[in-house]
Amino acid sequence: MKILVTGGLGFIGSHTVVELVNAGYDPVIVDDLSNSSVKILDQLARILGFKPKFYELNLCDEASVKLLAAEQSDISGIIHFAASKAVGESVQKPLKYYYNNFYSLINLLRFYEGKPLNFVFSSSCTVYGQPDVLPVTESAQVKAAESPYGNTKQIAEEILKDVTASGSKFNITALRYFNPVGAHETSLIGELPIGVPQNLVPFITQTAIGKREKLTVFGDKYNTPDGSCIRDYIHVVDLAKAHVAAIKLMEKPDFKGYDVFNIGTGTGSSVLEVIKAFEATTGVKLNYQIGEPREGDVEQVWGDVTKSAERLNWKAERDLTTMMASAWAWEQYIAANPL
Ligand code: WQD
Q1: Which pTM was predicted?
Q2: C-alpha to C-alpha distance for 258 and 172, rounded to whole angstroms
Q3: In sequence order, what are the residues at sequence separation of 6 or more whose Cβ sits closer than 8 angstroms to the Cβ of residue 190?
Q4: Are 208 and 328 in contact (CB under 8 A)?
Q5: Measured distance CA(237)–CA(19) in Å, rounded
Q6: pLDDT tens-digit readout, 118-141
Q7: Could you tell me if the CB of 189 is within 6 A of ligand 1?
Q8: CB of 200 closer than 6 A to ligand 1?
Q9: Could you identify the atom of ligand 1 that is nearest to the CA of residue 230?
Q10: What is the number of other CB atoms lying within 10 angstroms of the CB of residue 35?
């Protein structure tokens, strides 16, 4: 069965394309290449043994989406990754985020309206802000977003719930990701940050390979065991598999409407623990300093993944060592094979 994967050449999208094929699905990739490289398509072909169907198009362009929906009218599902996702940039350019993240979603929903599709939405734990209770469950209060990026995720979930309540033929699941890290075991695909990485793990691997002089740990005076922030890091392949599990859940006759799932490991790791895990796994001593806290960071968040285990029939399997080893192997691969 055909599944449309928007943002399918991105970090999580490309890994999900691989897992869809592994599960017997036929992915159709849509990507505007604003935050990815078309060379990832060749990398996917090396992993899969064939090049998936690819449309270079911007989902904010109505005519393009209308054409896509006409040409790809026989899809059974959509996994929607395509969105702007840099927290810091969203504070500087809120209109870019509201335009891109809402207009792309609304166009997809409009031009596929009326079709009985299984729709997976890429949401984020950022909707929780700093939870009052940890681990955070899906029923926790969704707090005032810390950034326009987080706000687009919260409002998009509301849009999807309203679409469901209107009697739409869509089945919809929103997956609230925690922190995706690592890379495919072949090292042929991974995270390709443009410019200076905003996220921790690509900054670590770029420092380790010498592309960055040193890592700054954004604060070590938090109310945590070692003073640095805690997050729930999840291997991108486990995250990709969760999307296949969501499609399979919605294919079941007893699934109706809308549901939301935490996609994490259920375990928190501090920034300093991640650094130590990286050094222990790779044998590379990391050059880092302690700096000031970063504006907008929550102190600690990790997910309660009971509902995902029970309803989604999915659990993360890869540990921090595997996450660090695969991230490092990927950094070394792209250093030798620039994409
Ligand atoms: C993790 C920890 C930093 C860089 C964001 C989004 C989330 C998702 C993942 C899109 C924090 C610390 C980081 C550095 C550091 N994005 N850090 N030095 O902010 O938890 O989550 O990215 O889907 O929605 O909110 O991830 O990797 O930026 O930071 O000390 O150079 O690492 O302070 O504690 P974050 P992150």
Answers
A1: 0.97
A2: 5
A3: 11, 182, 183, 184, 236, 326, 327, 330, 331, 333, 334
A4: yes
A5: 8
A6: 999 999 999 999 999 999 999 999
A7: no
A8: yes
A9: 34
A10: 18
197: cis peptide before it, omega within 30°? no
Q: How far is the CA of 203 from the centre of ligand 1 (A)?
A: 10
Complete domains list, the chain, with CATH: 2-181+234-263 (3.40.50.720)
pLDDT at res. 220: 97
CB-ligand 1 contact for 279 (6 Å cutoff)? no
Q: How confident is the model at residue 50 (pLDDT cuts 50, 70, 90)?
A: very high
Asked if 27 contacts 97 with a C-beta cutoff of 8 angstroms, the reply is no
* Per-residue pLDDT tens digits for 192-243: 988 899 999 999 999 999 999 999 999 999 999 999 999 999 999 999 999 9
ipTM: 0.97
Query: Is 229 a pocket residue for ligand 1 (Cβ < 6 Å)?
Result: yes
Which of the following is catalytic: 25, 55, 149, 222? 149
